[in-house]
């Protein structure tokens, strides 16, 4: 069943003589996206303001900038990372090194871990997080996750990550709404809108799946623990491709790149680098998740690709560590600056919130 939104005077002018754009969404969501006849305020300068000469006609109009939300998302992420590092250095690593104390038959992480493809590690009396973490045993190196893999860092950072997740999902929702409105106004093609509409529910699920790393620990189930990270990586690949698609489809250009041609070239180069690094990182971690190197019911083989443990160009850094570290910089570092610059020139959403008239019971 198809649903349509009622065109406003402004959207009708933008589309011309074309028929009303069909968003193919449930009525409730369509009304929310298109305003169901509401007029977008072009000259609103305040973030939130009321409109109308009569108090009864007042509406709340809010300006929402998707790229600013993305910028806040990465700010919150790096605050989370720094907090995890400080908490681990000041408290967690000392507690883990001290071990379980006088407790006998202790539970993980204070056990002897024997993962296929690596030497067993005895942690029954405590261990050094940096040199003897479970990730280091499996991968041959550490990544940022070791700073929230162990109690109490894991519990504290799990709470902090909730705000990162909220912001990330808010960004996914706002770019979806932006695409819907741009399609309705005739600024993007139907194919562009169909891509956004198809990817939207998947991105919501994938972004929320990262919390699995706090629920399933690296020492209880490395495979399921890594699954949350892989799903988030896929979501970030999708977002990067949608952003590049938007730049190319709308002929966007940013002053810091000069003209449209340079903007398009920069977008393609950056997203290509990001996608290639992401696919390499996804593969190495999916190798763990799906047990591609395991055999004999997971009792033998290796959990991480052997080639990823080899030295990178003769340095002391393993290939896998180079991939992970470079991915971190490109995917979590560069977008911090890109989103800030794009927030200066990309269009904002004008959200009008109103109340329907109260229904009066004539029998009262």
Are there runs of 5+ residues with pLDDT below 50, and where?
1-20, 28-46
* Proportion of helical residues: 40-55%
Q: Cα distance, first to last residue? A: 39 Å
Q: Strands of the biggest beta sheet: in what spatial order?
A: 1-2-7
Looking at how many chains there are and whether they match, the oligomeric state comes to single chain
Word description of this protein:
There is one protein chain. Helix 3 packs antiparallel against helix 6, helix 6 packs antiparallel against helix 7 (190-208) and helix 9 runs antiparallel to helix 10. The chain is globular, with a radius of gyration of 25 Å. It has 11 helices and 7 strands. The chain has a domain at 66-91 and 159-347. Residues 1-20 and 28-46 have low confidence and may be disordered. The protein is mainly alpha-helical and 364 residues long.
Q: Quick recap of the structure?
A:
It is built from eleven helices and seven strands. The chain is mainly alpha-helical. A hairpin with a 7-residue loop joins strand 1 and strand 2.
Q: Layout of SSEs?
A:
Blueprint: H1 9-15, H2 27-34, E1 48-51, E2 59-64, H3 66-98, E3 112-113, E4 121-122, H4 129-132, H5 134-139, H6 153-184, H7 190-208, H8 212-215, H9 222-250, H10 260-289, E5 294-295, E6 300-301, H11 319-342, E7 349-353
Antiparallel strand pairs: 1-2, 2-7, 3-4, 5-6
Keywords:
single chain, 364 residues, mainly alpha, three-stranded antiparallel sheet, two-stranded antiparallel sheet, 7 strands, disordered N terminus
